[in-house]
Design brief:
The chain is α/β, with parallel strands linked by helices. Helix content is 41%, strand content 18%. It has seven helices and seven strands, in the order αβαβαβααβββαβα. It has helices at residues 2-7, 24-32, 51-64, 79-84, 91-110, 147-156, 167-173; strands spanning 12-15, 39-44, 70-73, 114-117, 122-126, 139-143, 159-161. Strand 6 (139-143), helix 6 (147-156) and strand 7 (159-161) form a beta-alpha-beta unit. Helix 3 (51-64) packs across helix 5 and helix 5 packs parallel to helix 6 (147-156). The longest helix has 20 residues, at 91-110. The two termini are 33 Å apart. The mean pLDDT is 92.
Length: 174
């Protein structure tokens, strides 16, 4: 499918996170070896790894795939699914952590040494050095239509995707 997408002129492939599915980041890495130009956009769950570890995994992907990595932050995962995966934060606390998560991941990626004291994460003299430093940040995508998702997307995303809907639905969110 990745070959077909690339040959057809697509420039990116979104790999969703699904409850019973494979890990999107690993799928993206496997597919990146089979293509030359396709940018891979695996969906990331903010509680699945520390933001420091996310930065390290993502920059490693960037290095080996020649800057063909972006990530999509899932801001609308059902709370029952999150709880089944060990994430019990709800509501405003969950969004606050997601925002801090991306802030720490970006800081780890771009600053060495990186120090941060937050509500959910503390980093002391972190950051990426050596061959992991200096690569451009991946583009961050979000999606969703709720007012709170749109507020978070405004702070976090380079690109916000709107799902299917009527013209009126889309314009009301603009």
């Amino acid at each position: 499918m990745a070959h077909a997408a690339e040959v057809s002129g697509f420039d990116g492939a979104f790999i969703p996170w699904e409850v019973g599915g494979d890990e999107p980041l690993i799928i993206a890495a496997a597919l990146a070896r089979e293509t030359r130009n396709l940018v891979f956009v695996p969906e990331i769950q903010p509680a699945s790894a520390t933001p420091v570890y996310l930065a390290k995994m993502a920059v490693t992907f960037q290095r080996f795939a020649r800057n063909r990595f972006a990530w999509k932050l899932d801001l609308e995962l059902d709370s029952a699914v999150r709880r089944a995966h060990g994430d019990f934060l709800e509501g405003e606390e969950w969004f606050a952590r997601a925002e801090e998560y991306i802030h720490v991941a970006k800081g780890t990626w771009t600053t060495h040494p990186f120090d941060f004291r937050g509500r959910f994460y503390d980093v002391e003299r972190g950051g990426l050095a050596g061959p992991l430093s200096g690569l451009p940040l991946p583009r961050i995508y979000t999606s969703g239509r709720s007012d709170r998702v749109l507020q978070a997307a405004d702070k976090l995303a380079d690109v916000h995707l709107l799902g299917p809907g009527t013209v009126e639905d889309v314009l009301s969110q603009a």
